[in-house]
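Marked as duplicate of an earlier ticket. Keeping the data here for the record.
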Amino acid sequence: MSAADRSSLQAHPFLIVSYPILQVMSVNLHECALTVMILPLLAANLFAAFLLWVMSKLMDKGEKAAIATSLSLFLLFLYGLFADATVGLFVPYHYHLVTIPIWLLLIGLLCKLLAGYEAENKKLATFTSFFNSLGCFLVAIVSVLLLNEVYKVSQVQSPTFASKTHLQNLPEKPSSALPDVYYIILDGYSRNDVLRKQMGFDNSKFTKELERQGFYVARSSHSNYHSTVFSLNASLNLDYISSPTPSYLALLKSLEDSAVFRVFKHYGYKTEFHSSGGFEDVFHRYDNIYRTDIWMTNFSFITFHRSPLRPLVEHLKLRTKQKQTRGVLNNVLASPDRHSPDIPRFVLAHILAPHTPYVLKADGSTVDSYHITKTHTEKEAYEAYTSYMQYVNDWALKFVKKVKSIGKVAPVIILQADHG
């Protein structure tokens, strides 16, 4: 391709709009599949094509239209930095009502200046070559980073847990019927004394009812780990995580074939995994995986949350989380109906509640703000958390009652938080 051809080729808007999406994938590949970026890439490039068409109607030359498009796309994805820096300076709960018009006005003024700029074709060709080179450079750099992450993911080895070495000597399956086992992880659930001290909330009614139902409540329990993937590894592998601490990728890999999973499969259990978002691919060896289908993925949310689409994607994410939470709770509640007297079941459910975002109130109604802990007061955040917790409490008691009413062999039910 000649230098003249390169200067007339206006590929830079599509390269520049693809860069932020590839960049998000390069730092999140350990948590999602490459395929989740296909739709965001397609949508972003279609928008770039539309914006380029609009600019071509407003500008007297195609090169200026392409440059205006690239600058606009670049600034659109920089909006998130501006919004985060000015949060709280404007209307506290709806700051985007001020920040988005300001940012779009800035982009409009820039495009107007560019439209009125008189430049020779040679100078426009130089600008076009620069933007093409910049776009190619950005995409090339992030592609190298992405390929490096793909390689690192392929080379990750699961950490060694001592518990797995003892599984070769498990006794044979007993002749008596084995109980169904329900292991329910309530993400971010705090213990009673912390709730009372930090939030002024009395949760004793719920825990007393659990004790009345035959549960043992560990009143001084605490997690050894700060996040779900660490806590789940220790629980499901019946061992502390070794030092030095394995990478996040290694910990995810170790969940695929955990010690607990091996034990239950050894005794002929049918396994179920329920998720309210995340870990579905990690637990792919389970016989049945229940999830709520959504289209607003975490990847799409992170990508477009940087742009003036922020209020829209926050609204869609809020509705997505509400759908996911209701979906997983309904799926787990229906799980006892699949009880079989001949085949025992191990049911593992990771429920992202009452963890933030606090998407439901105590009565099951929806909240109207996604980032409640960012733009609301501490008191409002505590009230939202405890209200969400009460909704989870009511569900848990309903679930326990249903499980205990099914089957002749008393089930094993474990309700556990992964961290506070």
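See parent ticket for discussion. Strands lie at 181-186, 270-275, 288-290, 345-351, 412-416.
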